[in-house]
Structure formats: C-alpha cells, structure tokens
Write a structure and sequence with these properties.
With 370 residues, the chain is an alpha+beta fold. The chain is built from 10 helices and 21 strands. The chain is elongated, with a radius of gyration of 27 Å. Bound molecules: S-adenosylmethionine.
Length: 370
Amino acid sequence: MSVHTILLDFSMDPARLGDENGQKTVFNQLETVLKEYVPNLLLTADIKVDGGSLKILTGKKGAIVSVRLFDRGLVTVNIEYYKEDCEDPLISFKSAKILESQMKKYIVALNSQALTPIKRCLFGRYYPTSDERLLEYDIDEVLFDEQSPFQKIKIVHSKSLGNMLVLDDLQNISEADLIYTETLMQRGKENYEGKEIVILGGGDGALLYELLKEKPKYVWMLEIDEVVMKACNKYMKSICGDVLEQRKGPNYEIIVEDCMLTVKRFMQEGRKVDYIFGDLTDIPISDADCGELWEFMINILDAAFKILKTTGKFMTHGNGATSIDSLEMYEQVLMKMEPAVVFHKTKAFVPSFLEDWIFYQISFKGNDVE
Ligand SMILES: C[S@@+](CC[C@H](N)C(=O)[O-])C[C@H]1O[C@@H](n2cnc3c(N)ncnc32)[C@H](O)[C@@H]1O
C-alpha cells in the first residue's frame, strides 16, 4: 500500500492568470478535463492566496486534487490517492501523460510536464544523491529494519542491485558495489601483502573481506555498531563472506567500539600501521554535535595520521563528484594538515549511489602515493 502523488505542471502567459476571473476561467477548463479522469470530483475549497489561488477537489476513494494557479503564469496540479498493492492505479503514468497533454491543449499552456507518480510509504524507495537530488530505486522488499543505539539500519532488496545496506536513510553499499571496495583499496595498484592495516568503520565487512584476499599481515576493523554487522552477516554474505561471523581470524580482528578510542589506544602504544582506510558513514557517529562534523573529520584524520608509518597511506571515500563544495572543503582540510600531506583522487561510478564517487589516496609529503 502507498499514497500515489501525480504532479503536473503548466506554464502560460501570466496575463491570463493576472486576476481572479482569469484564474477561474483556466481552472474551469482544467476541471472539465480532470472530471474525466478522477470520478466524483467535487470542488470543496476555493482559497485566495498571496500571488494566486488554490482550489481543492475531492474525488472517488478519497482522492484529493489540488490546483494552484500562480499569477506569474504557473499552474500546478497535484493528484493524491491511496493505492493498495493489489489495486490498479487510479491514474497510471501513461494516463497522466495523456491527461497532461489534454489539459495543455484545453488551457492553451505554453509548456507542461507530468512527473512519474511519487509512491509515498515508509518503504524506503527514494534516496538522495550526494547533492540532494531524489533517486527512485526498484526496491521490492525490506529484509531488515532495526534501530540500533547509533543509527537506523535497513537492508532492502533492489531488483537490479541485490541487497542494499541503508543507514539513517542513506544508501551505504549493495551487492552490486564491488567497484566501490576495489576503488577504495585501489586494487591492482597497491600491494597489501604483509602489511598492517586499520579500517575505520567498514561495518558491512566488504572491505575487510576483500583485503584479506591480498594476504595482509594483520587487519584491525574498528566498527562501532554491532547491529550493522549482524544485519550484513545475515543478508550481505555475497560481499562479506564469513568475516563478520568469525570476528577474529589468524590475521584480523574486529574491535567493536568508537574508532577514535582504538586509534587513541594505538597512539599510546606507539603502534604504527601501513594503511588506514576511512570507511565511515558520510556523517560518522561521534560524541560531537552534528554541527561539529568537520571538527570530527579533522580530529579523526589527525589521529589517524599519528598511527600511520611515514611511508603509509590513508585511503578514503570522499563524496559524489557533483558535490564540488564539499569535496573542496575536504581538500582544504587536507592542505592545512600538519605534517603536510599530498593526495590523489580516483573517480568511479558506484551502482547503488547511482552517481560517480570520488576516492582519496593520501600520504605524507615526500612519500607521494604514486
Ligand atoms: C557501512 S560502512 C560503509 C560506508 C559507506 N560505504 C558509505 O556509503 O558511507 C560505514 C560504517 O561506519 C560506522 N561508523 C560510523 N561512525 C563510526 C565511529 N565513530 N566509529 C566506528 N565506526 C563508525 C557505521 O556504524 C557503519 O557501519
């Protein structure tokens, strides 16, 4: 079950919508066409608003149609109705397109568009791009849904991506995302054999699973959330194998706590590693307030570099390639780091993000990454 919202937009000569009479004429023309598509349509409210008017109509099965006429020459028509999964839609996208073209003709609009129906339910069908554009996924099942002490954890099934981990309503990784892990670790370009590695976050287990194939000396994965690992161990086996099940092996262990605590412990022990991976959520879980996100990022970078050998590398995912401002801010942080660092960037299209993503390879100046 879901609520379907069909959005139709029209533009016309503003002079035709300049006063109440003009708006009434255009509305009457629209209503004539609408009545053919939404049975039992009745005008229930006619509201004058600043810059135009709003008409609300009710129809069969509780359908609501709101028509907003803007005196600047815009008309929006929103049709909203409740739909059971087994029912046919009241208005399919195909009929919405026909409705749009009929209305356009009737009101002699200059331009028009019909958006695909938005299906609103608490099912998790829509997720954002990094620059906050709406993406619709072909999700047909929610396999896991739990609130941990740290975040809202969902595993959903997408027809094209397989199972997908979603944390706090943001897509994290799917079964189709090997490219994410391989780009993060620069597979084929880096040699992990015999190396000591720390993963910050990485609760889905994919990075640990892939790194272990490269015969490292030891990998510490520092993940705060037990529930993420429980969910991925059950539903994302194809990307993490049994590393989350075992928790400890001859050359790896998973430490369940805030990564900052473990990194600080490593600092006190004077331990230094060859690689550190930043595989935290885009908004990492921290004691700091949300407003201090950048402060947390800087602290984690600072601390991480203190447990990195001078020849070591810090590898992390950045942001969507279209999120230029955020990427630039991150790079500004890197450029101000003490001791100085240099960085390289790699871009890859990540299937479950439905966009290009930027990955960073950072090393101490004088020990360039390539
Ligand atoms: C699932 S991984 C993968 C990141 C990812 N590919 C993305 O899109 O953001 C991110 C993990 O970082 C963990 N995490 C966030 N903040 C953390 C912290 N302070 N310490 C340890 N783990 C943390 C989350 O629990 C989560 O499991």
